Amino acid sequence: HRVAGKKAFITGAAGGLGAAIARMLARHGALVFLTDIDEAGVRAVGEAINAEHGRTVAWTAQQNVRDEERWQSVLAEADAAMGGLSVLVNNAGIGALGGVESLTPKEWARVMGVNVDAVYLGCKYALPLLKQHQPASIINISSLAAFKVFPDYTVYNASKAAVASLTKSVAVDCASQQVDVRCNSIHPAFIRTGIVEPFFEQLGEQEAVRKLTRGIPLKRLGEVDDVAYAALYLASDESRYITAAELRVDGGASAV
Ligand code: NAD
């Protein structure tokens, strides 16, 4: 059990990467608290995890990560349910098409709100709890887009670069306070989840796979568990000397 005794909080866990990370951490011994704006969706994921384990290892709650007050109340709920908090996974995120001219300021603020402001809020309000359960770990889900911009995806690219930078500030601040809370970002390339589905709808299956795998040395899309295994490592004490890292889970895409 690589994360036995860990108590993990995961946002955006109604599907895609968040649900896969929750399943993976629970399978390896963690207690997990899942939230999403989609209440029914996240409840179903939590129930499936509990059914798999035959006992309660997962709790769920509705949370819009943009809501500052909700961050405080939901973290208190998680702390009470699990008896502490030692892992935070800031996973919730949204995409938006648009170049710098076509993008409206409202759309810019909406995407930055979910992808960046919410990660800041999560770190800010979870840190006091994480400090009580050292060694602790914060995992922020960024993207390949932090290194290589996706065309016509301006605000998303900027938001994911901001997440990578914020991650390093949190990591260095904790280290300088001599607090054993590590903070790292994960950078997936393309995985077929809700956020990538519009490309499949727009281009059709074959063309979408062709386009999305074009710059990937390993010549395939990622799978949700490729990211979940990375999160498992960063959540566990196996990664105890890893902080402020940008872990690429991209089939080599950022190298070429
Ligand atoms: P997804 O759309 O399947 O999952 C995102 C989840 O976040 C959804 O369940 C959604 O309901 C939730 N969410 C959206 N807005 C929210 C809000 N305001 N408050 C709370 N929850 C909210 O997509 P995914 O691929 O699983 O995305 C997870 C993360 O991975 C995102 O941060 C995304 O940017 C990142 N990512 C995904 C890929 C990929 O190819 N799928 C690649 C790189 C990074």
TrEMBL record:
Domain of life, source organism: Bacteria
Signal sequence coordinates: none
Q: Which key words tag this protein in UniProt?
A: Oxidoreductase
What's the family? Belongs to the short-chain dehydrogenases/reductases (SDR) family.
Q: What is this protein called?
A: SDR family oxidoreductase
Q: What is the lineage of its organism?
A: Bacteria, Pseudomonadati, Pseudomonadota, Gammaproteobacteria, Lysobacterales
